[in-house]
C-alpha cells in the first residue's frame, strides 16, 4: 500500500481530517443565531440542539457530548455562543480538558444585543476561517484515522454486502495502525460473546458483555422486549436462521480484528485499534456520540438510503443494494450491491471502501458534505441507566 | 456471474445469490456443489459436511449448530440448525 495520508496536526498531537470552524450554541435559544452566523460566514459550520440548560439525570451525558464534540480534532476552532449559565462554562472547561485550544466565547448578556452578538461572532468566525485555510495538511501516520462504523435502514443484503465489505476496509486500517469504532448496542445483542472472544484481554471481553447486559436490563425495565422470537419472521423468510447470524451481520462492519477496548457513549479511544462504543441505534444520536468521541471520519452502510451527514465528520454512505444506489445517487458515495449480483467480490468492494476512506481523509468531499447535511441530536437515556453512567 | 457467496474461507456454508433448484450444479472458485433442495436467494447452502452438533460457520464465526447431519448442497436453515444462545425453534 503506497497510499499516503495528509492531515492537520493539532497542538495536542491529535490529527484532523477537516479544518472546521464550528459555531456552537450552548443553549437551544441561540441555535438559529448560530445557523445564521455560519450561513453568512466564509465557510464556518454550525449545529443546533434542543438543550436549554435543564438539570436532570441526562445532564452529565449532555455536557460530555457537547464538550467532546467541540474538541473533536476535525475542528480548527470553535465559536461558543452562551446565555450565561454555569453548565455552559463546564462544557467549555470540558472541551479544553479534551484538547480544544482555539476558541472564543461570546455571551449574550455580556454583549447585551443579539444583533451585536451576531456581528461579533461573524468577525471571529471569518478570522478563524482565514487562519484555517492557511494551515497546510502534512503527512500523517495511519493512527490519524479514527473511523466510525455505522449502519441504518438495514435490509436483507446488509449482512452479506456493505457490512462485511466495510469490515474488510476496517480490518486493513486497524492492521495499519488506525482506529475503528463500532457502535449500536442494540445491533450486537446476541453477538457480544463473539466480540468478547476477540478481546485483547479478558477484562475488555467482560466489559462488552456487561455493557450489553446493562442495555438489556434497561429495555426490560421499560417493558420492551425487542428480543422476543428473534430472528423475526421476515428475517427467517430472508434467510437468517439464528439471532447470532443477524447480529454477526451488523457486527461485520468491524471485520475480524481483535477488540482493543470498550467505550462509553462519547468517550474517545486513547490508543489505536478496534473499539466498541455504547451508542443508541438512532443514527443521528450515534453520529453525535461518534463526534464527541473524536472520531474523524464515518462510513455509514444503508439498505434504504439516508441523507444523514455531520457538520464536523465526513460521512461516506455505502448502499447494500444497487437499486437504492441508482435511485438516490446524490446521497450515496459507493455501491456494495455488486456483491449480491456476483459482479464484485467482498475483497474488491472492501478495497474500494478503503480507497474512498483514504481519499476522503485527504480532503475529497463526501456527498453528504457537498449537500450540506449537518445533522445533530443529543442522546438522552433512561434514569435507571444514567445512574450507572 | 457468481451464484453463491462464501463470506470467509473458514465457512462451511455459502449464501445463495440466486434461487437454486434441485439438481443444479454450482461450479465456482474450484468448488463444485450439487444442489439437494430448492434454496431461495439470500438463504444458505452447505459447502461442507456438517455433523450433528457441529458449529455452523458464517463470516468465519459460529452462528449456531446443526441439529441433524447436513450434507454438502443442502439448504441450511431453521429446520436443521439452531442458535447456540437463543433458540429460534419457536412455532
Description:
The complex is a heterodimer of chains A (389) and B (91). With 389 residues, chain A is of the alpha/beta class. Chain A folds into 2 domains: 20-134, Rossmann fold (3-Layer(aba) Sandwich), CATH 3.40.50.261; 142-370. Chain A has 15 helices and 14 strands. In chain A, strands 10-11-9-8-12-13-14 form a 7-stranded parallel β-sheet, with helices on both faces. In chain A, strands 4-3-5-6 form a 4-stranded parallel β-sheet. In chain A, strands 2-1-7 form a 3-stranded antiparallel β-sheet, with no helix packed on it. In chain A, β1 (5-9) and β2 (15-16) form a beta hairpin. By secondary structure, chain B is an all-beta fold. Chain B has a single domain, classed as Archaeosine Trna-guanine Transglycosylase, Chain: A, domain 4. Helix content of chain B is 0%, strand content 34%. Chain B is built from no helices and 9 strands. Chain B has strands at residues 4-5, 13-16, 25-28, 31-34, 44-46, 55-58, 61-66, 75-76, 81-82. A 4-stranded antiparallel β-sheet of chain B has the order 1-2-5-8, with no helix packed on it. In chain B, strands 6-7-9 form a 3-stranded antiparallel β-sheet, with no helix packed on it. Chain B starts with a strand and ends in a 9-residue tail after the last strand. Chains A and B meet through α10 of A and β7 and β9 of B.
In N-to-C order, the SSE pattern of chain B is: EEEEEEEEE
Radius of gyration of chain B: 12 Å
Q: Mean pLDDT score of chain A, rounded? A: 91
Biggest sheet, spatial arrangement of strands of chain B = 1-2-5-8
Count of DSSP strands of chain B: 9
Amino acid at each position: 500500500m503506497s497510499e499516503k495520508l495528509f492531515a492537520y496536526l493539532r497542538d495536542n498531537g491529535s490529527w484532523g481530517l477537516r479544518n472546521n470552524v464550528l459555531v456552537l450554541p450552548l443553549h437551544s435559544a441561540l441555535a438559529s443565531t448560530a445557523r445564521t452566523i455560519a450561513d453568512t460566514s466564509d465557510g464556518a459550520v454550525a449545529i443546533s440542539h434542543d438543550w436549554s440548560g435543564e438539570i436532570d439525570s441526562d445532564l452529565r451525558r449532555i455536557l460530555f457530548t457537547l464538550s467532546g464534540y467541540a474538541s473533536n480534532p476535525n475542528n480548527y476552532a470553535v465559536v461558543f455562543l452562551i446565555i450565561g449559565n454555569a453548565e455552559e462554562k463546564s462544557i467549555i472547561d470540558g472541551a479544553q480538558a479534551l484538547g480544544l485550544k482555539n476558541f472564543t466565547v461570546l455571551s449574550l448578556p455580556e454583549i447585551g444585543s443579539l444583533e451585536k452578538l451576531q456581528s461579533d461572532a461573524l468577525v471571529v468566525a471569518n478570522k478563524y476561517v482565514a487562519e484555517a485555510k492557511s494551515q497546510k495538511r502534512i503527512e500523517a501516520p495511519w493512527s490519524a484515522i479514527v473511523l466510525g462504523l455505522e449502519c441504518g435502514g438495514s435490509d436483507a443484503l446488509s449482512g452479506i454486502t456493505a457490512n462485511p465489505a466495510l469490515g474488510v476496509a476496517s480490518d486493513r486500517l486497524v492492521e495499519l495502525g488506525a482506529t475503528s469504532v463500532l457502535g449500536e448496542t442494540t445491533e450486537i445483542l446476541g453477538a457480544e460473546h463473539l466480540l468478547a472472544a476477540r478481546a485483547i484481554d479478558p477484562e475488555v471481553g467482560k466489559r462488552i458483555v456487561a455493557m450489553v447486559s446493562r442495555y438489556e436490563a434497561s429495555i426490560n425495565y421499560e417493558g420492551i422486549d425487542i428480543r422476543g422470537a428473534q430472528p423475526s419472521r421476515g428475517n427467517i423468510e430472508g434467510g437468517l436462521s439464528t439471532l447470532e447470524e443477524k447480529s454477526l451481520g451488523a457486527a461485520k462492519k468491524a471485520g475480524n480484528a481483535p477488540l482493543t477496548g470498550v467505550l462509553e457513549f462519547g468517550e474517545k479511544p486513547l490508543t489505536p485499534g478496534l473499539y466498541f462504543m455504547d451508542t443508541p441505534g438512532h443514527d443521528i444520536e450515534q453520529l453525535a456520540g461518534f463526534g464527541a468521541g473524536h472520531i474523524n471520519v464515518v462510513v455509514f452502510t444503508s439498505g434504504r438510503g439516508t441523507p444523514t451527514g455531520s457538520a464536523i465528520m465526513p460521512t461516506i454512505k455505502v448502499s447494500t443494494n444497487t437499486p437504492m444506489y441508482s435511485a438516490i445517487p446524490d446521497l450515496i458515495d459507493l455501491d456494495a450491491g455488486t456483491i449480491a449480483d456476483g459482479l464484485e467480490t467482498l475483497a474488491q468492494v472492501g478495497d474500494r471502501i478503503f480507497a474512498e476512506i483514504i481519499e476522503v481523509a485527504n480532503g475529497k468531499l463526501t456527498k453528504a458534505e457537498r449537500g450540506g447535511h449537518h445533522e445533530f441530536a443529543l442522546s438522552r437515556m433512561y434514569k435507571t441507566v444514567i445512574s450507572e453512567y | 456471474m457468481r451464484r453463491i457467496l462464501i463470506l470467509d474461507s473458514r465457512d462451511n456454508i455459502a449464501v445463495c445469490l440466486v434461487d437454486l433448484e434441485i439438481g443444479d450444479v454450482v461450479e465456482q472458485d474450484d468448488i463444485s456443489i450439487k444442489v439437494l433442495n430448492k434454496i431461495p436467494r439470500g438463504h444458505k447452502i452447505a459447502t461442507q459436511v456438517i455433523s450433528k452438533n457441529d458449529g455452523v460457520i458464517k463470516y468465519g464465526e459460529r452462528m449456531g449448530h446443526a441439529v441433524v447431519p447436513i450434507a454438502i448442497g443442502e439448504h441450511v436453515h431453521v429446520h436443521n440448525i439452531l442458535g447456540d444462545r437463543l433458540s429460534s425453534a419457536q412455532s
